[in-house]
Amino acid sequence: MDIDTLAKGIGLFSSAITALRQAIELMPDGSKKSEAVAALQRAERAFKIAEAETAKKLDYELCHKHFPPEIMLSGDDTTWKCPICGNEKFTGLQVGSIPLS
Ligand SMILES: [Zn+2]
């Protein structure tokens, strides 16, 4: 599967989860609602993992301080920060990234 297809699939899945969450919020409280909420939480977890895998393919860094992993953000592609826990990672001086010529 190429990255565009994967990214589109994740976008559609994200929309579906949002619609599902809104539908569940309208349900009356009870055991059926609890089951639906639990199923939604499992789906959201699977979604976070798929999203993280896609981000990794797009050369984003992932925060490994929790699971599912969070996608770390960077303003300069060398210093990365997790928006959830504030964990920072520096990737600026990796062996192999220095030109030999
Ligand atoms: Zn984190």
Q: How is this structure best described in words?
A:
By secondary structure, the protein is mainly alpha-helical. The protein has 2 domains: 1-58; 61-101, no CATH class. The chain has helices spanning 3-25, 31-57, and strands spanning 62-63, 70-71, 73-74, 79-81, 88-90. Strands 3-4-5 form a 3-stranded antiparallel β-sheet, with no helix packed on it. A two-stranded antiparallel ribbon has the order 1-2. α1 packs antiparallel against α2. The longest helix is centred in the middle third of the chain and has 27 residues, at 31-57. The protein is elongated, with a radius of gyration of 18 Å. The structure holds zinc ion (ZN). Zinc ion is lined by residues 63, 65-66, 70, 82, 84-85, 87.
> Helix and strand succession?
HHEEEEE
Estimate nothing, just give the exact number of structural domains. Answer: 2
Instruction: Write down the overall geometry.
Output: elongated
Question: What is the overall number of helices?
Answer: 2
Uncertain runs are none
Q: How would a textbook summarize the main sheet?
A: 3 strands, antiparallel
The chain-level mean pLDDT equals 88
Strand content: 5-15%
Distance between the termini: 36 Å
Helical/strand content category? mainly alpha
Describe the strand arrangement of the main beta sheet, using strand numbers: 3-4-5
Ligand types: zinc ion
How many distinct beta strands? 5
Gyration radius (Cα, Å) is 18 Å
Estimated helix fraction: 40-55%
